[in-house]
Task: inverse folding
């Protein structure tokens, strides 16, 4: 199959997949108790597998091999896309497909701890991606608006905007939740029980269980069984973790002081000394906002701990904090805190880059500028610009101008240190003429150093429950 034929086949496959996903989502939305059967044929459908292959190939991790040593590009060259997809389909149809162990990769975290990633084979990733294409529109019908992580059309900014919005409206006590090794400790039986609430097809359930139970080949080359958790880094893990953690969302939504109350009932509860509460969750990072007292927040924290224990999860006592909005909190890289507006007596809740986030980007700049001076200056600029554009784009949705101004000065200083090391005998005037065109802001032959101070900031509007589904029924 040549490139044009493959692109046409992919276009047709995407249309078919979207049409079926829309039907699944519509059926799941119309009947909250419906259990879906005969889904396995969709997982093994050529259109679903082709779209799954395209998404796996387009990921950055496509260049990383699993335990079989094969990458997406090597498969495309040695086997061919059409032949590979057909082989996967046949193995699923005749029930010979069996997930291979994931390759363990330990990633350092702050504080000296490590995060365990599980790298699946390309074949397993394609099957997981196809499985996700089938399951996601069904479970999306059940997920609540307070959940934002790894869901279509949602992002971290929505979760931060909700915290800022609610803490500006009397929800002043916050429980900053931290779950111990969430992806590693989820109970398989409890998770599969929640999957069964929607999925009746035993072949699909067996496939999900097989991925959960796939072993782990450690960095020490020792094969270990996987009795709990979902391998972090796999395509299916974010969806399964949301299925598991939806118990928390449902507990808050169904609570007597949850979001379903009318304004009148909320006011009545506060007059009676009872708390109202809302939650904002991004994957396993969540904040519970409480309109009440610290004692109310402590009680709710203990109740949440009991709810999470049903999924085999535990709250970290050291990292689960209860704070007041006047003292501020760190959430998804942001610092959210109420301050008095300069020149007035009014107080507002602001969000701006947390110190930890600023330290992180400063460390990356420092590391890049410690590279060998034998590199071309344009190469250094490309590396710095890539990091800075992504960081400032994320943090432009807040009160970040002061931080961007500081980052500009920090960046300028370290880039100039690099140039002085590259040309130790050159004068400032010579360096400015060569690298700044007589000014002070560095530029190379093909690139100009990104200026964080020129990034305009803009509030990210809280969208609430108005976030559209990607499977809207039209026409």
Result:
């Amino acid at each position: 199959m040549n490139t044009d034929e493959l692109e046409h086949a992919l276009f047709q496959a995407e249309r078919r997949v979207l049409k079926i996903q829309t039907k699944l989502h519509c059926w799941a939305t119309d009947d909250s108790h419906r259990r879906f059967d005969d889904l396995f044929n969709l997982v093994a459908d050529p259109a679903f597998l082709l779209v799954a292959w395209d998404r796996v190939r387009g990921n950055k991790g496509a260049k990383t091999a699993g335990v079989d040593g094969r990458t997406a590009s090597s498969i495309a060259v040695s086997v061919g896309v059409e032949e590979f997809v057909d082989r996967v389909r046949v193995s699923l149809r005749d029930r010979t497909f069996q997930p291979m162990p994931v390759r363990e990769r330990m990633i350092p975290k702050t504080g000296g701890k490590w995060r365990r990633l599980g790298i699946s084979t390309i074949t397993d990733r394609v099957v997981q991606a196809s499985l996700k294409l089938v399951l996601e529109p069904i479970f999306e019908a059940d997920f609540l608006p307070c959940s934002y992580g790894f869901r279509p059309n949602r992002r971290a900014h929505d979760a931060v905007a909700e915290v800022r919005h609610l803490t500006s409206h009397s929800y002043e006590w916050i429980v900053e939740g931290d779950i111990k090794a969430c992806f590693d400790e989820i109970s398989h039986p409890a998770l599969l029980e929640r999957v069964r609430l929607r999925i009746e097809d035993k072949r699909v359930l067996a496939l999900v269980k097989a991925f959960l139970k796939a072993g782990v080949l450690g960095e020490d080359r020792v094969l270990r069984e996987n009795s709990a958790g979902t391998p972090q880094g796999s395509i299916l893990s974010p969806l399964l973790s949301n299925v598991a953690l939806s118990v928390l969302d449902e507990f808050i939504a169904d609570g007597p002081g949850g979001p379903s109350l009318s304004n009148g009932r909320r006011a009545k509860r506060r007059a009676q000394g009872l708390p109202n509460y809302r939650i904002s969750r991004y994957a396993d990072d969540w904040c519970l906002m409480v309109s009440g007292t610290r004692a109310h927040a402590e009680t709710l924290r203990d109740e949440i701990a009991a709810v999470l224990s049903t999924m085999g999860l535990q709250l970290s006592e050291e990292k689960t904090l209860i704070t007041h909005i006047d003292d501020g909190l760190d959430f998804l890289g942001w610092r959210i805190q109420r301050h008095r507006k300069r020149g007035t007596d009014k107080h507002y809740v602001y969000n701006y880059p947390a110190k930890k986030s600023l330290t992180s980007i400063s460390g990356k700049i420092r590391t890049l500028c410690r590279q060998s001076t034998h590199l071309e200056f344009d190469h250094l600029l490309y590396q710095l610009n890539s990091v800075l554009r992504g960081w400032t784009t994320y943090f432009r949705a807040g009160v970040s101008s002061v931080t961007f101004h500081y980052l500009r000065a920090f960046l300028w200083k370290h880039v100039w240190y690099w140039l002085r090391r590259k040309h130790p005998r050159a004068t400032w005037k010579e360096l400015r003429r060569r690298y700044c065109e007589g000014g002070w802001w560095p530029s190379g032959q093909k690139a100009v150093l990104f200026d964080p101070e020129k990034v305009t900031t803009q509030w990210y509007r809280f969208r609430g429950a108005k976030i559209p589904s990607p499977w809207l029924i039209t026409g």
Remarks:
- The mean pLDDT is 93.
- The longest helix spans residues 3-30.
